[in-house]
Amino acid sequence: MATATQTKSDLSHAPSVITLKGVNKWFGQFHVLSDINLEVKLGEKIVVCGPSGSGKSTLIRCINRLEEHQQGDIVVDGVTLSNDVKNIEAIRREVGMVFQSFNLFPHLTILENLTLAPIWVKKLPKREAEEVAMNLLTRVRIPEQALKYPGQLSGGQQQRVAIARALCMRPKIMLFDEPTSALDPEMVKEVLDVMIELAREGMTMICVTHEMGFARAVADRVIFMDRGEIVEQNEPEEFFAHPKNERTKTFLGQILHH
Amino acid sequence: MTDVLPAGERRQLAPPVDDTGVLGWARRNLFSSWGNGITTVVLIVAIGWLLSGFLKWAVFDAVFSAATGAECRGHGACWALINEKYRYIFMGSFPYEQHWRPLFAIIAMLAMLILSSDRRMWNKRLIAIWGIGSFVTFLLMFGQIHIPLSLILFVALAAGGLGMILRGAIATAGEINGWRALAAIGAVGLILRVVGVLPAWSLAIAPLSYVETGLWGGLPVTMILATYGLLFAFPFGILLALGRRSNLPLIKGLCVGFIELIRGVPLISLLIMASVMLPLFLPSGMSIDKFLRAQVAVILFAGAYIAEIVRGGLQSLPKGQFEAADAMGLNYVQKTTLIILPQALRVVIPPLINTFIGFFKDTSLVLIIGIFDFLNTANQALVDPNWAGFPGEVYLFAAFIYFIFCYSMSRYSKHLEIELNKGTRR
Asked: Looking at the predicted structure, is the pLDDT value of residue A5 above 50?
């Protein structure tokens, strides 16, 4: 990895942290993921896009076992996902996730939302966990909201809290599942800014998003999925300028020209 | 308002009539139209007539003290009966000169309940309060308590085990070693006791004369059945509800089977089964106290109902809450106790308290197996031939006492709902 401040880094020598080999998944008869092969390097930022129902959310949800895949291997940070609960919990400690609908815990304050996992999962002393939490809230620019409840915050603020909450566990990898899709347009930027900052610090990220500006700014690789397959993947400049597959062209045509 | 308006000009209305103050309120709510006005007048007359009749009977013509029921004849309510029998109604057949014991037991239970209703007490202090309070209550009622060594060892093992599980994630090494030591003492002691190395000793605490449960009666019996019935039924119901949502078919099947079985039979039949049929299955010579059997029946019954209510709360939570907890790496126990239950229980406070109120009253069904709860002692007070013929007074009195308890619970439920939703409301 090159310097941390640089967005696009030289990843040719970086070790891989996520490997998917021949992953298949079905919802009933519906083939959501078909023969997915993917390797993500440490520090790499990947944007996954594609039409709705293409399996992109399912793909990242398989990485932290919110969904179970039926065939193939998923290796995260050297651990192969299996049915072993300890195994799954170990992986989830290393993988932070941000959801489309924030999923903050409404009965806990913002600070409690952030310190819960560090205290209970990482066994951090309460004071230390609160210190880490306040630092992260400052980083996402809402330290003054620490003692409020999620219901009192705007959508954009809630999503920034959700990002801070995931970061509190000091994860190696961050998964973003359409983090800006549920936001009012004027709040999208504040969340993307936080994500761009995070990318510049060298976090390994996989983002399912349709924010192509974000993809251009930070992604090392853009992946286009359709009907459960990875149809095309490339560096963002190449991907947007010269899409090769017909389906990619159609999709980009639909989302880029309005 | 009768002026002829120039064309194109809007008629200006008078400002609204004064609708503040008592008169304004009455005008708006009671006499807003002719129909409403007539209805109001008719209802006021009817209520006044009924109320005056009741007051005449209950207060003005009532007899408050009399030697026998005969002196009440021809007058209004015979409160003299309550005056004469209240000790029996409240305390049942508990030895008369010892009535201070159930009285203080009632006070101890009320104190526990009132202390627990304050949300600031919802921490470790509550366990201490209930431990000490329950001990005092039962010591007063029984007079003597013998704690067998095996029970002490079992409690040590259970407490140590629970401490290791619950505090394992956050405690210091020293504290964990303490819990481990406690559990180890309990386990080793129990094994030695079973093998026969330790004698069948029991700790006797006997400051008062022994009173068996058969003599208990009145309000303490109702309060014990309801309080401890619900105290144990609540966690039991939560476990059943969680079990019903389990992925393990065996656990799920057992919970569903239990809930459906219990819900499918009347409480009376369960009480009779516990009282008549259970002894048939037990080896001869072994008997379980009748009061305890009724208590267990109430716990099982209430547990099944609470389970279904809690399940409703669990189902009302969005899937994202479970996923977010999973994604953070919380294990099942942490996810359930820190994220899921606090939210699920909050949602179901109104139906839960509704069930609690129902069960407080349903404990009166234990009279069917000869336990003298409050309603049953009230009933028995009517049997005295000297005071025959005044059921209305006695039942009205019993109803009044039940109402005080149930209405307090109802108000508390309202208060709790507001309190718990304070921060989470937008």
From this structure: no
DSSP code at position A118: H
Is the C-alpha dihedral spanning B115, B116, B120, B123 positive or negative? Answer: positive
Measure Cα distances from B113 to A225, B131, B351 in Å. 60, 13, 19
Q: Of A159, A206, A217, A186, nearest to A56 (Cα)?
A: A206
* Shortest Cα–Cα distance, A258 to chain B (Å): 32
Q: What's the CA gap between B165 and A78, in Å, rounded?
A: 29
The neighbour count for residue B232, using CB atoms within 10 Å, is 17
Test mutation, A79, A95, A107, A108, chain B, max B CBs within 10 A:
A107
Segment B389-425, tens digit of pLDDT: 788 888 999 999 999 999 999 999 888 888 887 766 5
CA A29 to chain centre: 27
B227 pLDDT more than 50: yes
Residue B209 burial (CB < 10 Å; 0-12/13-18/19+)?
exposed
Which chain B residue has its CA at the smallest distance from A150's CA?
Answer: B424
Can you read off the two tokens belonging to residue B279?
């002894």
Which residue type does A82 have?
A: S
Q: Cβ contact (<8 Å) for A66 and B326?
A: yes
pLDDT of residue A148: 92
Of A103, A119, A148, which is closest to B323 when you measure between CB atoms? Answer: A103
Residue pLDDT, tens place only, B158-217: 988 888 877 766 667 788 888 888 889 989 888 888 887 877 777 888 788 888 888 888
CA distance A164 to A46: 20
- A120: chain B residues, CB-CB within 8 Å: 169-170, 330, 334, 338
Q: What mean pLDDT value characterizes chain A? A: 90
Sequence-distant (6+) residues with CB within 8 A of A73 are: A19, A20, A21, A22, A23, A80, A81
3-state helix, strand, coil in chain B (%, to 5): 75, 5, 25
Cα–Cα distances (Å) from B170 to A123, B73, B166, B175, in that order, read: 6, 71, 8, 10
Residue B173 touches partner A, C-beta closer than 8 Å: no
pLDDT in tens, B273-304: 888 877 777 777 777 788 888 888 899 999 99
Tokens matching residue A234: 């490339």
Contact B276, B200 (CB under 8 A): no
CA-angle at B179, arms to B173 and B181, nearest 5°:
100
> Distance (Å) from the C-alpha of residue B332 to the closest C-alpha of chain A?
10
Given a cut of 90, is residue B42 above it in pLDDT? yes
B293, B278 in Cβ contact below 8 A? yes
Interface of B with A in 320-339 (CB under 8 A): 320-321, 323-331, 334, 338-339
Chain A CB contacts of B318 under 8 Å are 101, 103
Calculate the average pLDDT of chain B.
86
DSSP single-letter state for residue B134:
H
Nearest-angstrom CA–CA distance, A222 and A225: 10
Of A96, A97, A105, the CB nearest to B321: A105
- Measured between CA atoms, how close is B321 to chain A, in angstroms? 6
Strand partners, A38: A20
Least confidently predicted of A201-205, B4-8, B147-151, B343-347: B4-8
Regarding pTM above 0.80, the answer is yes
Q: What is the ipTM of this complex?
A: 0.90
With the C-alpha atoms ordered B349, B355, B357, B360, is the resulting torsion angle positive or negative?
Answer: negative
